[in-house]
Amino acid sequence: PAIVNPYDLFALEEALRLKDKFGGKVTMLCMGPPQAEEALKRCISFGADDAILVTDRAFAGADTLATSYALAAAIRQIEKEQAIDLVFTGKQTIDGDTAQVGPGIAQRLGMNLLTYVSKINTVDLDGRTLTVERRAEGGVQRLKTTLPSLITMLEGTNEMRFASMDDMLRAGRCPVRRWNKDDAGIADATRIGLKGSPTIVSKVFAPKARSQRAEMQAVGQGTGVNDVCLNLL
């Protein structure tokens, strides 16, 4: 069944928290098959205002390069309807695990990129700035940048709210807008789907189970792990 990418739920909750504090509008955007509409309706039940499903056979077989191109084009179309201050994504998907689409969108749109964000400290709408904390090797970085920006949210940074009865009823009535490649503003059809995907997956397989059991080595008194490793070598 089609589900919302779990990492994206952290991004949705963070967007909804900013909406609760500052107002504004939260629009969900997804590129996928028609059955992804149910996942988008679930997002509306949590409090999102609008949902757009970019779906077209021309998008089939897209890798991260083609996906970021299509989503960036769709965001430009949304920007014709309303100003965009922040784009939120999860840090990655649970199938590909590449973490490339968010940064790819930011690069194409010329937005400031903040990845692996664990906390949004301040947002200054008048000064058009925000400060965040992001996880980095060896610690936490505090960064300040200007709007508009794209943020990829880290897992475990918040807890998804429960859907209210009013929002669940609204989700049932709210139509998910469907955009084909023309509606999404795709200027070059050779950059989407298989044609726009230089990455080719030739084979997907699970590793074979090893029959050989791990050999246990005891570290005795007066010896260390280095001694045991040297003996094995």
Question: What attributes characterize this protein structure?
Answer:
233 residues; alpha/beta; five-stranded mixed beta sheet; 6 helices
Can you characterise this structure?
The chain has 233 residues and is of the alpha/beta class. Helices cover 30% and strands 22% of the residues. It has 6 helices and 8 strands. The chain has helices at residues 6-22, 37-46, 64-79, 101-109, 165-173, 225-232, and strands spanning 27-31, 50-54, 86-90, 112-124, 129-136, 139-146, 149-153, 177-179. The strands form 2 sheets. A 5-stranded mixed sheet has the order 3-7-4-5-6. A hairpin with a 2-residue loop joins strand 5 and strand 6 (139-146). The radius of gyration is 22 Å and the shape is globular. The protein starts with 5 loop residues before the first helix and ends with a helix. The mean pLDDT is 92.
Mean pLDDT level: 92
The largest beta-sheet arranges its strands as 3-7-4-5-6
Question: What is the chain-wise order of helices and strands?
Answer: HEHEHEHEEEEHEH
- Which percent range describes the beta-strand content? 15-25%
pLDDT below 50 for ≥5 consecutive residues: which ranges? none
Main sheet specs: 5 strands, mixed
Strand tally, please? 8
Task: Write the topology of this structure.
Blueprint: H1 6-22, E1 27-31, H2 37-46, E2 50-54, H3 64-79, E3 86-90, H4 101-109, E4 112-124, E5 129-136, E6 139-146, E7 149-153, H5 165-173, E8 177-179, H6 225-232
Parallel strand pairs: 1-2, 2-8, 3-7, 4-7
Antiparallel strand pairs: 4-5, 5-6
